[in-house]
Amino acid sequence: MTQTGASDPVTDQTPKIELVPLTAAFAPVASALHAQGFDDPWDADAIIRLLDVPGAFGILAYQPGDPAQNSEDLPLGFVLMQTVLDEAEINTITVAPAARRMGVGKKLLGVVEERLRASDVTRMLLEVAVDNDPAIALYTQNGFSEVGRRKGYYARRNSAPVDALVLERLL
Ligand SMILES: CC(C)(COP(=O)(O)OP(=O)(O)OC[C@H]1O[C@@H](n2cnc3c(N)ncnc32)[C@H](O)[C@@H]1OP(=O)(O)O)[C@@H](O)C(=O)NCCC(=O)NCCS
């Protein structure tokens, strides 16, 4: 995966999805992806700081370029995890709008789970806005269930704050 990444739209309906560790070198790519998924994007420095925390790791998904067609690697999405002892929190997960509903999010969660199963982690946790239907669908389809709710957790620019659901998956 090139470190500049590309911002062309995904043209293939079923892109080849490759995964690499999200290192600091890819922080600008991850930051650009984050800006497409959230109202308050994280800049590259913020992503580097999160990756620097002990127990943190990330996975970047991309569609490999085709030298024959002179096309570059295309970033598809990433997940950023934080583990503490036997728990792992999904700090963020996002997929480029043009690559959604193609299995990228599912593949990212799958490789995270594989890695966590090889460690001491027994429990995955995350917070998701109650109105984020695509994310809730992704998580429930991947074995997460609700264990709590945080009132008014997410501030919204033009409306009242929104509750967060706390979801858990036991490994
Ligand atoms: C949530 C998000 C990461 C999902 O990524 P994705 O790559 O589109 O998800 P997948 O294609 O792997 O979907 C896997 C399953 O999740 C569910 N799902 C995902 N998006 C859905 C949607 N828009 N509507 C209904 N179900 C959806 C489906 O069950 C889907 O399986 P299917 O396509 O076979 O029906 C993506 O929508 C996104 O980046 N959103 C913006 C950022 C965000 O909200 N992140 C989560 C913060 S908590």
Number of helix segments? 4
Bound molecules: coenzyme A
Radius of gyration: 16 Å
Pick out the low-confidence regions: none
> Could you tell me the mean pLDDT?
94
Helical content class: 25-40%
Strand proportion, as a percent range, falls in 25-35%
Topology as a string of helices (H) and strands (E): EHHEEEHEHEE
**What about the largest sheet?**
7 strands, mixed
How many strands? Answer: 7
Distance between the termini: 30 Å
Describe the global form. Answer: globular
Largest beta sheet: what is the strand line-up? 1-2-3-4-5-7-6
Structural class: alpha+beta
What does this structure look like?
With 171 residues, the chain is of the alpha+beta class. 25% of the residues lie in helices and 34% in strands. The protein contains 4 helices and 7 strands; from the N terminus they run E-H-H-E-E-E-H-E-H-E-E. The chain has a 7-stranded mixed β-sheet, with helices on both faces. The protein is globular. 30% of the residues are buried. The structure holds coenzyme A (COA). Coenzyme A binds next to strand 4, helix 3 and helix 4.
